[in-house]
Design brief:
InterPro entries: O-antigen_ligase-rel_domated, WaaL-like. The protein is an all-alpha fold. It contains 18 helices and 2 strands. The relative contact order is 0.13.
Length: 436
């Protein structure tokens, strides 16, 4: 009896240690400068997972069978996409680069892939684990938002920077928009899910603050993305749960907060030269149509039309540089670098951007992966009423679909989101146990 209790304590301890390191990894994953913490947390998670495996082999393999059986298609699609990227990066367009295309590919996909592998074997469908992982993503986003919001807390900056039409001197850097599109839906659904009144109120305040921040970035693609997310999530939510509206408490308070936010936003728009100019420029103020018209025919008519250039922005710049010597500048750029090459902005839509690097096969598999993730998240929410999947759906809509129509996103986040399907499915264990 004492031995069995000791065994259970060991099992719980190692399992909890894995969860702690997973949370540390997720909180640091979206911060580019925390590489050491990411590596330590990853090593720690796998170390305790191995210890957990040594005393709990049967349950570990049971977790794998359950998770892989339910999500094998999305996992296979993601793996095929990564394999295509790796193979094409072995034969890049140019070898005149600082870091090889293959090394860059491995660098960007290794952690998301290992995280997916960890979720397959370690995640046992425990509800508490799903929610802890979900809230780790939210607090990572809030920490990131705090860094980007530093100028908001200085009244002097607020009065002087609101009218500056310079992307580098905006009150909130435009780089924030990419992170916002990915993780704001988690915050929004977190406010709905959270039962603690204090934490819920905190999340609601953070929602309005981050919405105001995204307005100040001047990123019109993000404005459209967040509106689209609200529409899609709202339609799905009320379609599947018609009693949801009546269950919302403090409707008057929420309505007043929304009206205050709208008034502040209108004030900011009419008093900011930068924001007014973004509205006047329309959807193509950044010259994206010109980028497509000038650059896309070059690769379509080249010998890399099917296979792509290989991963890495230097492959893209070298390819354009070789052609711009013949026909001149190829659209919007950031001037010349020390080698005399134009710093071309990689502002194609997501799928086309991937086509440059992974060719027809890579772009096709990425499109299939995004669409499958979108419909799978909706299906999972409808069948389980699990709001974590609705957050996943909202994020896919705002980032990879709507914002991806304007911007070329990096691929690691897409692979990481495949892991979230496993990590958020706390219904999995309950249903499988009943079937067994």
């Amino acid at each position: 009896m004492n031995k069995s209790i000791k065994f259970l304590k060991k099992e719980t301890f190692f399992d909890n240690c894995v969860l702690v390191f997973v949370c540390i990894y997720l909180i640091s994953e979206f911060r580019g400068h925390l590489t050491a913490i990411k590596s330590i947390s990853f090593i720690g998670a796998y170390l305790f997972f191995i210890l957990d495996y040594l005393i709990n082999k049967e349950n570990i393999f049971l977790n794998f069978r359950r998770n892989f059986k339910k999500y094998k298609l999305i996992i296979i699609i993601a793996l095929v996409f990564c394999i295509i990227m790796l193979i094409i990066s072995l034969f890049p367009y140019s070898n005149n680069v600082k870091v090889s295309s293959f090394t860059l590919t491995l660098r960007y996909i290794k952690r998301p892939l290992f995280f997916m592998l960890l979720m397959l074997f370690w995640f046992d469908g425990a509800k508490i684990k799903s929610y802890i992982i979900f809230y780790s993503v939210i607090f990572s986003f809030l920490w990131l938002s705090l860094d980007y919001s530093i100028n908001l807390w200085n009244p002097q900056n607020f009065t002087t920077m609101l009218d500056i039409n310079n992307g580098d001197d905006r009150m909130v850097s435009r780089e924030y928009a990419g992170e916002f599109d990915l993780y704001f839906p988690f915050l929004f659904l977190g406010a709905i899910i959270c039962a603690n009144k204090i934490l819920k109120s905190f999340f609601i305040v953070c929602i309005f603050v981050t919405l105001f921040m995204i307005l100040l970035t001047g990123a019109r693609g993000s404005w459209l993305a967040v509106v689209s997310m609200f529409l899609v999530v709202g339609i799905i939510l009320f379609k599947c749960n018609k009693s949801f509206l009546t269950a919302i408490k403090n409707k008057k308070t929420i309505f007043i907060c929304i009206m205050i936010f709208i008034c502040i936003s209108i004030f900011a728009i009419f008093n900011s030269d930068m924001l007014k100019s973004r509205f006047k420029q329309g959807l193509d103020g950044s010259g994206r149509m010109q980028i497509l018209e000038l650059r896309l025919p070059l690769i379509i008519n080249s010998n890399r039309a099917f296979w792509g250039l290989g991963y890495g922005k230097e492959q893209y710049i070298n390819f354009l540089h070789d052609h711009s010597q013949k026909i001149g500048e190829l659209g919007v750029n950031g001037g010349k670098d020390e080698l005399g090459r134009y710093r071309y902005f990689h502002d194609e839509p997501l799928i086309i951007g991937q086509y440059y690097h992974s060719g027809v096969l890579g772009a096709f598999m990425l499109a299939i992966l995004i669409l499958y993730m979108f419909f799978k998240s909706i299906k999972m929410y409808i069948s389980t009423s699990n709001l974590l999947f609705l957050a996943l759906c909202g994020s896919i809509v705002s980032s990879f679909i709507v914002r991806g129509f304007f911007e070329n996103y990096l691929t690691p986040q897409i692979i990481l989101f495949v892991s979230f399907f496993i990590a958020f499915d706390f219904q999995n264990r309950q249903k499988t146990t009943q079937n067994e």
